[in-house]
């Protein structure tokens, strides 16, 4: 499988009148087709900044260094018009909090048509057909009804699935998902993760999956970067990181999550101790 | 917060200007070279001289002295008007927004009623009813304008009453007075500051307008609007008589508006250390 | 019984009325009754919109229900009781909210935020409290050092601000603390740290918690009993947390099934999982 995206020494600095702070410090990774990179970190660790920098979504107040090679082109050196053409078509993004990703004043069908009109050359009929196709693919019932509904009439889970469907419809090569399941309840989160896994394995889309939740990342990622204060404190194969990584911060994250999950398993198995110990 | 204000150059400039004008107004006898009422018909429309820095008007009175004495009604009366309007408006807005329910309905219906009258006409009507006297002008202003501010303040209060920190205070039993004074008022303080400074500007213009129309300050009391009224007849022969008070009004109102912007920034704790 | 809620009904006026002066109401809580013993931690789990937060507000006296009553230590919150009794009841409850950004007055420093609770103690017990010393003690209790006293809310991280809110809630010496999705907005590892803090405080001071959340593993970590909330009703009550696996309702079963565990697999398992994910 060929390498789709190669990021080398990416750094982002926020410039202000008096001082500058390094938000992302020397991040490097490579992503192959059909692979998933999980970026694990807490709020303020720089994980969203990294992807916004790659996508060209940061304004002039940020100074970006390093390179992000995608199909023999450095994304960081492209101008905004070229990046705009890539975004949505070859590189798609799914963001946190789906309720705020849609304009509350327009119905869903209208907003989906907006994306299609921008990147594909289809007439009204075809757009409607494609929108219904996508909604059914995401297992949303009454697709025609949904096209006429406004965002506030649908639940967070449904909106997030529409976002993923829209992202997929463009047949991107790379999908960046920034904490897509954080604002969603457990039952819907489970369904959405199944969608993501399908995207990865059936449609062979490369995914960068950002989250602060270990279990969600462990379900989908092949490789993991653990970020703290802008730096990559641990990086490598997912199974290795979650079982044998010796770095302090990573171990702390895993321990904390394990404590909760162990207790959950203990309760579920009716008091019989079944410790899911890391590394044993 | 005051320290933050002092760091802002525009704020310091505006405050200095307003302070200077206030001092000149309070200690007018010290600053004015001549008696503003003393007329000397033989000396009318005199040109600039050491004794009469801005010349004399159509009755031979010193324009500069009249300008300085004119600060008193223009600035101080507007201040009183603003305090009355904002005070009453804030009180009503707070009560309506915080207690909601019947209190809110009653106060807001009164506000709606007051707002449906055209303000300028109403002020003229009230002044005509109560008689031409500067106190009645102030009462008329307060009577009409409080409704505007009540509604704006109420909108802001409603924004804050459902915030979690107010809910917490109610949960542990902090008492309505504590919540209103320690929580609500500081939260709406920045909006109030902007409204207050805009209102002074409005009050200055209003008093000047009424004096211009002959309904406010009566001759021969010097007041910038009244001076404009007298100057309109001699615009071409003695332009300085109109230009001086005109520019003065503009500068005063502009200073207050700019100060309002700076105050709003100073009240916001997030706009802190940049 | 420390707290008892009987037959609580809550409804709100509907936004979209069918007729002009319509009085249609949207029922949010439908005939819910619970009880809480001293020192217990009761979990209320449900998805957003199920009515659990509204119910929580009724329990601590912030929202008057249409029907039903809540009594704490035998004193009714919404029925006929003297002002003195009602005031005393108010002193036994406290709350920590989900949204820490609006939980503290942005113009108050940390010492003022906690100072408000201390003021209540002063008024209630007619004593003078050394505010600075007590604030230091409380901050230390929640794991923050005294340098935080002069900071503003926007200068703190989510976890730190939530700890301040916990210190503030504990400062009034309550008996019951309502934790309304108190950890849901925090990062995963911070969630565990705050839950550990809450458990430690419970051991030390004997608080009773009502823990509202949508996250099942948090419930198993913190609580002794759990109630499943769905569409304004209790659809499942588990009185012994160890009996959790024996839930009867399909909603609860679906919830248990959806919990994602940490997935560390070898190659064989990966192939099996791939086959499963196509279904």
Textual characterization of the structure:
The complex is a heterotrimer of chains A (280), B (274) and C (279). Helices cover 41% and strands 25% of the residues of chain A. Chain A has helices spanning 47-55, 80-86, 108-119, 124-137, 143-148, 156-169, 186-202, 214-220, 238-244, 248-268, and strands at 3-15, 20-32, 36-41, 62-70, 73-74, 91-94, 174-178, 206-211, 223-228, 231-237. In chain A, the strands form 2 sheets. In chain A, strands 6-7-8-3-9-10 form a 6-stranded mixed sheet, sandwiched between helices. In chain A, strands 2-1-4-5 form a 4-stranded antiparallel sheet. In chain A, a hairpin with a 2-residue loop joins β4 and β5 (73-74). In chain A, α4 (124-137) crosses α6. The longest helix of chain A has 21 residues, at 248-268. The two termini of chain A are 32 Å apart. Mean pLDDT of chain A is 84; it is low at 271-280. Chain B is an all-alpha fold and 274 residues long. Chain B has a single domain, classed as Orthogonal Bundle (MetI-like fold), CATH 1.10.3720. Chain B is 74% helix and 0% strand. Chain B has 11 helices and no strands. The longest helix of chain B has 38 residues, at 176-213. In chain C, the strands form 2 sheets. Chain C has a 6-stranded mixed sheet with strand order 6-7-8-3-9-10, sandwiched between helices. A 4-stranded antiparallel sheet of chain C has the order 2-1-4-5. Helix content of chain C is 36%, strand content 23%. In chain C, α3 (110-125) crosses α4 and α3 (110-125) packs parallel to α5. Chain C has helices at residues 52-59, 83-90, 110-125, 131-141, 158-171, 188-205, 216-222, 250-257, 267-277; strands at residues 3-13, 25-36, 41-45, 67-72, 75-76, 93-96, 176-180, 208-213, 225-230, 233-238. Chains in contact: A-C, B-C.
Please summarize what this structure is.
The complex is a heterotrimer of chains A (280), B (274) and C (279). With 280 residues, chain A is of the alpha/beta class.
Main structural class of chain C: alpha/beta
Quaternary organisation:
heterotrimer
Backbone structural class of chain A: alpha/beta
Instruction: Please name the two chains that share the biggest interface, counting residues whose Cβ lies under 8 Å from a Cβ on the partner chain.
Output: A-C, 46 and 41 residues
> Main beta sheet of chain A: strand number and arrangement?
6 strands, mixed
Mean pLDDT of chain C: 85
Computed over alpha carbons, the radius of gyration of chain A is: 20 Å
Low-confidence stretches of chain A: 271-280
Q: What is the end-to-end distance of chain C?
A: 49 Å
Task: Provide the succession of SSEs of chain A.
Answer: EEEHEEHEHHHHEHEHEEHH
Please give the share of residues in helix of chain A: 40-55%
Number of strands of chain C: 10
Taken in chain order, the helices and strands of chain C follow as: EEEHEEHEHHHEHEHEEHH
Low-confidence stretches of chain C at least 5 residues in length (pLDDT < 50)? none
Q: Give helix % range of chain C.
A: 25-40%
Mean pLDDT over all positions of chain A = 84
Kindly estimate the percentage of residues of chain A that lie in beta strands according to DSSP. 25-35%
């Amino acid at each position: 499988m060929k390498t789709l995206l190669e990021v080398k020494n990416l750094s982002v600095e926020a410039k202000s009148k008096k001082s500058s702070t390094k938000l992302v410090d020397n991040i490097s990774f490579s992503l192959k087709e059909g692979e998933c990179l999980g970026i694990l970190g807490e709020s303020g660790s720089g994980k969203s900044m990294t992807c916004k920098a790659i996508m060209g979504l940061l304004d002039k107040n940020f100074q970006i260094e390093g390179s992000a090679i995608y199909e023999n082109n450095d994304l960081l050196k492209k101008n905004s018009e070229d990046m705009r053409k890539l975004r949505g078509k070859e590189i798609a993004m799914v963001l946190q909090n789906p309720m705020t990703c849609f304009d509350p004043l327009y119905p869903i069908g209208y907003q989906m048509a907006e994306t299609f009109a921008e990147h594909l050359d289809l007439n009204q009929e075809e757009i409607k057909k494609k929108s219904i196709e996508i909604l059914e693919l995401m297992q949303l019932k009454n697709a025609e009804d949904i096209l006429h509904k406004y965002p506030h009439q649908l639940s967070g889970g449904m909106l997030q699935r529409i976002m993923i469907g829209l992202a997929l419809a463009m047949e991107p090569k790379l999908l960046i998902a920034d904490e897509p399941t954080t604002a969603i309840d457990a039952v819907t989160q489970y369904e959405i993760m199944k969608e993501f896994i399908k995207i990865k394995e059936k449609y062979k889309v490369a995914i960068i999956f950002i989250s602060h939740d270990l279990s969600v990342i462990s379900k989908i990622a092949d490789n993991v970067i653990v970020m703290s204060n802008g730096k990559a404190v641990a990086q490598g194969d997912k199974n290795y990181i979650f079982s044998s990584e010796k770095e302090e911060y990573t171990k702390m994250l895993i321990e904390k999550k394990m404590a909760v999950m162990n207790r959950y398993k203990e309760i579920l198995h009716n008091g019989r101790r079944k410790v899911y110990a890391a590394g044993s | 917060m005051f320290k933050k204000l002092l760091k802002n150059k525009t704020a310091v400039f505006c405050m200095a200007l307003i302070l200077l004008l206030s001092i000149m107004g309070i200690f007018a006898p010290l600053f004015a070279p001549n008696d503003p009422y003393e007329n000397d018909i033989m000396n009318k429309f005199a040109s600039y001289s050491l004794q009469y820095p801005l010349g004399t008007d159509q009755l031979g009175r010193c324009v500069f002295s009249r300008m300085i004495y004119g600060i008193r009604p223009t600035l101080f009366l507007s201040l009183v008007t603003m305090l009355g309007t904002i005070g009453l408006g804030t009180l009503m807005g707070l009560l309506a927004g915080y207690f909601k329910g019947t209190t809110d309905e009653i106060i807001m219906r009164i506000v709606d009623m007051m707002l449906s009258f055209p303000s300028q006409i109403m002020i003229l009507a009230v002044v005509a009813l109560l008689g031409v006297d500067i106190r009645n002008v102030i009462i008329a202003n307060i009577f009409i304008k409080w409704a505007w501010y009540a509604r704006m303040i109420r909108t802001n209060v409603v924004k804050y009453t459902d915030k979690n920190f107010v809910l917490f205070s109610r949960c542990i039993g902090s008492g309505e007075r504590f919540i209103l004074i320690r929580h609500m008022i500081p939260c709406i303080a920045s909006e109030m500051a902007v409204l207050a400074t805009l209102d002074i500007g409005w009050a200055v213009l209003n008093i000047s307008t009424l004096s211009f129309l002959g309904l406010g300050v009566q001759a021969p009391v010097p007041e910038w609007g009244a001076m404009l009224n007298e100057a309109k007849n001699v615009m071409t022969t003695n332009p300085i008589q109109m230009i001086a008070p005109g520019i003065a009004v503009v500068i005063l109102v502009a200073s207050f508006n700019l100060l309002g912007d700076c105050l709003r920034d100073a009240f916001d704790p997030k706009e802190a250390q940049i | 019984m420390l707290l008892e809620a009987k037959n609580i009904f809550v409804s709100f006026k509907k936004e979209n009325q069918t007729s002009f002066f319509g009085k249609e109401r949207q029922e949010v809580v439908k005939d819910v009754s619970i009880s809480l013993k001293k020192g217990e931690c009761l979990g209320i789990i449900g998805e957003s919109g199920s009515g659990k937060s509204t119910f929580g507000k009724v329990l601590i006296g912030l929202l008057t229900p249409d029907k039903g009553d809540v009594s704490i230590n035998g004193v009714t919150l919404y029925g006929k009781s003297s002002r003195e009794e009602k005031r005393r009841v108010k002193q036994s409850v406290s709350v920590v909210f989900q949204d820490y950004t609006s939980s503290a007055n942005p113009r108050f420093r940390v010492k003022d935020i906690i100072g408000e609770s201390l003021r209540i103690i002063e008024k209630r017990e007619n004593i003078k409290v050394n505010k600075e010393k007590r604030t230091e003690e409380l901050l230390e209790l929640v794991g923050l050092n005294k340098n935080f006293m002069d900071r503003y809310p926007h200068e703190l991280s989510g976890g730190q601000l939530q700890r301040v809110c916990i210190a503030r809630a504990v400062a009034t010496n309550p008996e019951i603390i309502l934790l309304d999705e108190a950890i849901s907005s925090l990062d995963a590892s911070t969630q565990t740290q705050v839950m550990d803090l809450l458990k430690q405080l419970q051991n030390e001071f004997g608080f009773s918690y009502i823990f509202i959340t949508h996250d099942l593993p948090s419930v198993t970590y913190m609580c002794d009993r759990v109630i499943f909330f769905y569409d304004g009703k209790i659809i499942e009550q588990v009185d012994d947390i160890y009996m959790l696996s024996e839930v009867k309702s399909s909603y609860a079963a679906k919830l248990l099934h959806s919990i994602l565990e940490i997935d560390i697999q070898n190659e064989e398992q990966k192939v099996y999982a791939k086959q499963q994910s196509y279904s």
